Amino acid sequence: MALLEKVFGVSADPVLSYVERTEIDGKFTDALKTPKHVVVYGSSKQGKTALVSRHLPYEENVVVRLSPSSNVEDIYSSILRQAGVELEISKTEEIAGEVSATLGIKAKAKIWLFGEGEMNASGYVKSTDKTQRALHTISFNLAVAQDIAELLKKIGFCKKVILENFHYLAEEKQRHLAFDLRSFQEMGIIFVILGVWRQKDKMRIYCSDLTDRVVDVPVEPWDTADFTKVAKAGAKELNITISSSIISTCIENSFGSVGVFQELMKEVCVAAKIKETQKEEIGLYNTTLAELAIKEKAEQYCATHQQALELISSGNVTHSKDKERKPLHLPYYLVMVILALGSEGFKYGVSRSEITAQIKTRHHRKNDVRPTDMTNLLHNLSALQHKKGINPPLIDYDIGKKMLYAIDSTFFFFLKNCNLQEISEEIASPI
């Protein structure tokens, strides 16, 4: 017997309705067989963690769950501790309250090394199989990737290092880690990185030396057949039948997001009072169940995303060329454009030229909006959302393609099912 929460919905643990996709699962498992780092990317709630944990058990590897406050040294310290290395931090050099990347953190590691000779005062110990080992203290720099890799190699480390929520890190920390990945790959320490973005080759953009050292695995797209398999797999676990009309309605309102679809399936069951596996098979045929599920999720997503848009609209201030004049408030106008475009207008992304044109049609000083102002706005969107605590981010600008995309998979559901006109009127104008 399975509980509903174990079958459908978004969960940190794998759900029982997981289905393997030959292309995606196959590409990931093939990548694990190479001596290269693996980057699993895509919009939020699209199955990145489920994919990785299914084929690379978390309990058998080293997992570091990143947060906005994580430093590179914190990450390396966690990896070493989980690998069984005892650390002694002797001195921290700080500049203006921040750890200096140049000076780093001087530390000592205590590790057991196998050796020869009888047990003596230097620490040699005989085990039951007559092998001998000694406890060694090694000085190293916690900020230097090669030092970390050398320590791991000394203890025979052969696990994968899984970095969850890479997108939570500030951009400069992402660049730092991307640069360090080359050293780790050369030393045979392999990372699996999970991040919310839709841009291929992000690690290589940060560090060109990672060419041929990284395999990118996108978790999107999900198609209708995939969603149908998810619904049927979950229905089988719960001993229920879900009509094709209910499934189709939920698929149409998921906008290609398996996370949204999973949540809608869960709410359909809640509306039908299905909480666990049924003793006798029950059929769900009333399409009202799908409508109730959509209404419930709309209320939840509306409150969350409206707050996020309000934070973005009050974001960084862009001044006109004449510093004496009032700021342009471009983040506010960008939010107004997104709400005006809605789900259909934003479905495939929006080009920089279209965004600029749309903002100028609304701006109170459109002649003062320069190309450099738009560059600052779009290139700093990730930093703005990070600063405002919007994690995962809602939107992301692809510099190469010059396109703005939604990367929170629930955002399209919000744009389709919430009253955008009412929301745009409620967001305070800074003018």
Descriptive labels:
431 residues, alpha/beta, Rossmann fold, Helicase, Ruva Protein, domain 3, 3 domains, five-stranded parallel β-sheet, four-stranded antiparallel β-sheet, 17 helices, 16 strands, 43% helix, 17% strand
Write up this protein:
The chain is α/β, with parallel strands linked by helices and 431 residues long. The protein folds into 3 domains: 22-218, Rossmann fold; 224-298, Helicase, Ruva Protein, domain 3, CATH 1.10.8; 299-426, no CATH class. The protein is built from 17 helices and 16 strands. It has helices spanning 4-7, 22-32, 48-55, 72-82, 145-154, 171-186, 202-206, 224-238, 244-252, 258-271, 288-313, 330-346, 352-362, 371-379, 381-387, 411-417, 420-426, and strands at residues 37-42, 62-65, 86-92, 94-95, 98-99, 105-115, 125-126, 132-141, 161-164, 191-196, 214-218, 240-242, 282-284, 350-351, 395-398, 403-406. The strands form 5 sheets. The chain has a 5-stranded parallel β-sheet with strand order 2-9-10-1-11. Strands 3-6-8-7 form a 4-stranded antiparallel β-sheet. Helix 5 packs across helix 6 (171-186), helix 12 packs across helix 16 and helix 12 (330-346) runs antiparallel to helix 17. It is flat and about 70 Å long. The model is unreliable at 91-103 and 115-130 (pLDDT under 50).
The name of the CATH topology of the largest domain is Rossmann fold
Cα radius of gyration in angstroms: 25 Å
**Overall mean pLDDT:** 86
Total domains:
3
> Regarding CATH, which class of the largest domain?
Alpha Beta
Number of helices: 17
- Work out the helicity level: 40-55%
Overall strand count: 16
Strand content range? 15-25%
The CATH architecture assignment of the largest domain turns out to be: 3-Layer(aba) Sandwich
Distance N terminus to C terminus? Answer: 58 Å
What is the 3D form?
Answer: flat
